Amino acid sequence: MEEGVVNERANDDLRGRFHGLTAALRESTKSPLEASLIFCQEFCQALVDYAGRWKTDEDPLPLLEVYTVAILSFANAASCLSSECENVPLLLEKLTLSCAELVLLLPQHIPGALWEEFRSSMKLAHSLLQESGSAQLRPLFALAQQDGIWSNTTLSSILSNTIPQTEQGSGSHTQFIARCFHVFHMHYLTFPLSSFLFFSSRVS
């Protein structure tokens, strides 16, 4: 079986698993807080189960597809998650930062269809999250609107250490990219799946 078919089936399975978690969240008879805690825990476990099948140092593209599915699925569930659950924004922050770290591993030339899917998914996810009162995905959404990650002027400036004075220390977008690059530099080719395992154990 071709690798692309395997990846597509795995992503369909992951969508189905996230859909099941969202359905269980909506139909739960538990308190909104408890149901949200359970959702976050099981969401993390599902992400680790599927993302752990690929290695970023060999090919980061399948993981980009996994994160695209995960972020959009989380956004679809956002309206059902309790605002009292502190793990909800924490999980979204980890998703956003980890996805951005992964994007830094991508080759310069990304298949157009894959990048377009990522771009449209981040746009929809950002819109859904905004409806739920969250703007946490905005920096990643901004990155996704570029023709490709390496066409981003702020990132190029960071790589060449020539950030314009007007951009230094200002703007959440610039700070977000700088933070991602710093983490990437400190943990080169190390995908932070362990952070999701740790997060999952914390909310159990």
UniProtKB/TrEMBL annotation:
UniProt name for this protein: Zinc finger protein 292a
Query: Where on the tree of life does the source sit, at the highest rank?
Result: Eukaryota
Segments forming a coiled coil: none
Q: Which InterPro entries match?
A: GH-ZnFinger_Regulators
Q: Name one GO molecular function term.
A: DNA-binding transcription factor activity, RNA polymerase II-specific
Which Gene Ontology cellular-component terms appear in the entry?
Answer: nucleus
Source species taxonomy: Eukaryota, Metazoa, Chordata, Craniata, Vertebrata
